[in-house]
Write a structure and sequence with these properties.
Elements: H1 2-29, H2 38-46, E1 48-52, E2 55-63, E3 71-75, H3 86-93, E4 98-102, H4 120-133, E5 140-145, H5 148-161, E6 169-176, H6 189-196, H7 200-207, H8 210-217, H9 229-240, H10 248-251, H11 254-260, H12 262-270, E7 276-280, H13 291-299, E8 304-307, H14 316-319, H15 321-332
Parallel strand pairs: 3-4, 3-5, 5-6, 6-7, 7-8
Antiparallel strand pairs: 1-2, 2-4
Length: 335
C-alpha cells in the first residue's frame, strides 16, 4: 500500500513538472533569431537578391580592379554562408575585376523552404542561374570553394566537362578543406545525428540553440584560431535567419548524395584539364591528415597543393586569411 502511494505521488509530481515545463519549452522553441551585428547587417545591406524558381537567393557582387577581365566566384561551406569570405574579400578585389559570392539555398540570407529536397544538383543550377542573371554566362570563371562548396564545384566541373549548353566555362578551380572523398570524410557527431535521426531530426533541429551550435562547431577550428563569441553569434544569426535551423537535417543529405554520386564527382576531378589547386588546413578533424591528402595527391597528381601552418584547421580562410589569400594568389598567378 505504501509503495503504491509512493508511485502515485511520483506520477503526480512528474505530471506537475511536465505541465510547468510545457509553456517554458513552447516559449523556447519560438525564441526569435538573434539581431544581426553591425558587421553582418552591413554585409546583408551591401548585397542583393535574385529569384530562382520563386526563391530568393542572396549574393554579393563587388567590382574590383578596373580593366581586368578576371572573375572569381566563391562557394561557401556548411553550415555557414557567404560571410565566411569577408576576411579575404578586399584582398580579392585587388586582383579580380568581379568578386561574386552567394548564399546557397537553405543558407544565410537566402530562402530556406521546408519541406524541400535540397541537393547539390540544385545548388549548382543556382550558381549557373546567378551568372546568367549577372550576364556572365559566357565569361571564363575562376571558382574558389570551401567544404560544401567543394562538392557544388565538383558538379559544376562535371557539367563543364560534358560541354553542356548554358553551363559555366571554368577557367580554374581552387578547393579548400572539403570532403570530396566520402571514404576520408569524418562528419561531426551532431551531423551524424541530424543526417540519420529520422523522426528525431525535426525535434533535434528545434532544440538546437547557440550553446549546442557553438560547442559543435568550435572543435573544427584550430586551438589558436577559434572564433570569438561574437563571430560565433554571427554564424548562428545566419543559420537562424528564416528559421534555417529547421532545415539543417535536410541540407545534410548532401553527405548521402556525395556517396551515391562519388564516381561522377570524383571522376570529374580526376580527369580535369584546367588548373586546379587545393588549400589545406592540416589540423582538420573532418578531412584528417595524412589520409585525406594522400588520397587527394594519388587521385589528382596534376593538382598543386598549399598546406597551411600545422595549427590551421577546417576553416582556413577564417583562421589564416593572409596565408589563405597568399596561397590562392600564388596559384592564380601561376598560369
Amino acid at each position: 500500500m505504501v509503495r503504491r502511494d509512493r508511485l502515485r505521488r511520483m506520477r503526480e509530481w512528474w505530471v506537475q513538472v511536465g505541465l510547468l515545463a510545457m509553456p517554458l519549452l513552447a516559449a523556447y522553441l519560438h525564441i526569435p533569431p538573434p539581431q544581426l551585428s553591425p558587421a553582418l547587417h552591413s554585409w546583408k545591406s551591401s548585397g542583393k537578391f535574385f529569384t530562382y524558381k520563386g526563391l530568393r537567393i542572396f549574393y554579393q557582387d563587388s567590382v574590383g580592379v578596373v580593366g581586368s577581365p578576371e572573375i572569381v566566384v566563391l562557394l561557401h561551406g556548411f553550415p555557414t554562408s557567404s560571410y565566411d569570405w569577408y576576411k579575404i574579400w578586399e584582398g580579392l578585389t585587388l586582383r579580380f575585376h568581379r568578386v561574386i559570392a552567394l548564399d546557397f539555398l537553405g543558407f544565410g540570407f537566402s530562402d530556406k523552404p521546408r519541406p524541400h529536397h535540397y541537393s547539390i544538383f540544385e545548388q549548382a543550377s543556382i550558381v549557373e542561374a546567378l551568372l546568367r542573371h549577372l550576364g556572365l554566362q559566357n565569361r571564363r570563371i575562376n571558382l574558389l570553394s570551401h567544404d560544401y562548396g567543394d562538392i557544388v564545384a565538383q558538379e559544376l566541373l562535371y557539367r563543364y566537362k560534358q560541354n553542356r549548353s548554358g553551363r559555366l566555362t571554368i577557367k580554374s578551380l581552387c578547393l579548400s578543406n572539403g570532403g570530396i572523398f566520402p571514404e576520408t570524410h569524418r562528419p561531426l557527431l551532431l551531423q551524424k545525428l541530424l543526417k540519420d535521426g529520422g523522426v528525431l531530426s525535426p525535434i533535434l533541429t528545434r532544440l538546437m540553440n547557440f550553446f549546442v551550435f557553438s560547442r559543435g562547431l568550435t572543435p573544427v577550428f584550430g586551438p589558436y584560431t577559434r572564433p570569438s563569441e561574437s563571430e560565433l553569434w554571427d554564424m548562428w544569426a545566419g543559420i537562424r535567419n528564416n528559421d534555417g535551423n529547421l532545415v539543417i537535417d535536410s541540407l545534410l543529405q548532401y553527405i548521402n548524395q556525395r556517396k551515391k554520386f562519388r564516381r561522377r564527382w570524383v571522376g570529374a576531378l580526376a580527369s580535369v584539364t584546367i588548373p586546379i589547386h587545393f588549400i589545406y588546413g592540416p589540423l582538420d578533424p573532418v578531412n584528417p591528415y595524412p589520409e585525406f591528402l594522400e588520397l587527394y595527391r594519388k587521385t589528382l597528381p596534376r593538382s598543386t597543393v598549399s598546406i597551411l601552418d600545422d595549427h590551421i584547421s577546417h576553416y582556413p580562410q577564417l583562421e589564416d586569411p593572409m596565408g589563405f589569400l597568399n596561397a590562392y594568389m600564388g596559384f592564380i598567378n601561376s598560369f
